[in-house]
Amino acid sequence: MTTEATAVATASHVQTISRHLAHRCAVAEVFVTSLQRTGPDDFVVGAQLPRMHAFYGDHRAPWDAEYDPMLVMESARQAAIALTHEFLGVPEDFGFVVRTFNGAVAPGAGWRIGRSPAELVMSVQISRRHRRGEMVHGVDMVLDIECDGTPLMIVDGSFTWMPPSRWAALRSGFRDSVGMGELGDPVPLGVRAEPTAVGRSDARNVVIGSIGHDAGEVTAEVVVDTAHPILFDHPLDHVPGTLLLEGARQIVASMSPAPPRRLLGISSSFDRFVELDSPTAAVAHPSDSIPGQIDCEIRQFGAVAARIGLRYETDEAEC
After folding, report:
1. pLDDT, mean of each 10-residue run, the chain (319 residues)
2. Parent domain of 209
3. How many helices, marked H, and strands, marked E, lie in the chain?
4. Number of domains in the chain
5. Which pTM does this prediction carry?
6. CATH of the domain at 112
7. Cβ atoms within 10 Å, residue 31
8. How far is residue 319's CA from residue 309's CA, in Å, rounded to a whole number?
């Protein structure tokens, strides 16, 4: 039996996995529905996408009629973490550090929201195991995702994990290095950008502040609302990558008076923690080397904490 046939045979969409495996507090925010191991480094994961969602479904036309690629990436993130708990023996109280997180969209009819929820099948492969001595403390994964047998997206990422004591030491060590000491209150919420200017309808989902233009760059403060029930589904001691990815996308949306073209690719790398209690800026500009891509840097403490590239459909891609 081929890997593809095995994937179709073993993915289930009857119920969600435990919210603890997916690192979610709200059961409603768990999208993964099954986990299966098909080889030493190969797995099959099922997921179901909600047809309406307060955050991932809040987009203006024409993208309100399609599933959000970042919803698929969130499903892939949940799958990757859950697999390490279920099959690699990673304890549920371990902390995870994401190094890279990327997605490539395969445009097609599978993205349209229909009368039934989209049922995804993810063929997952561990492409590399990170070791410290004989102990595995991280992996690189590739997730080939399809819907009804049609390719939807390929997601890949690299992440490591550590016990609570090591996490606490890592976090305190970083904060000491930037002169912050103990974690304080989050930065007060500033004025958010107008929802329509960043492709949103609900102001609660806006994660950037006033937008500035200077020398070909677009800048905005990142708005961190720790009471947001989805971005902060559970308490965190840092700004989550999901919020940073959305901040980059909203800056891109602000760069054009018309809705952005189709999002084709997302690339991201995370070099430092982004702290809750210090101002954070996002700075974006067109890529010098990749047509249709906008490059965004997340800056805090005078340094780049994350780099995010968003690649959009161009006239050349449509020919």
Report:
1. 50 96 98 97 98 96 95 98 98 97 96 96 97 94 96 98 97 96 90 94 97 91 97 97 97 82 96 97 95 96 97 66
2. 180-318
3. 5, 12
4. 2
5. 0.94
6. 3.10.129.10
7. 26
8. 23
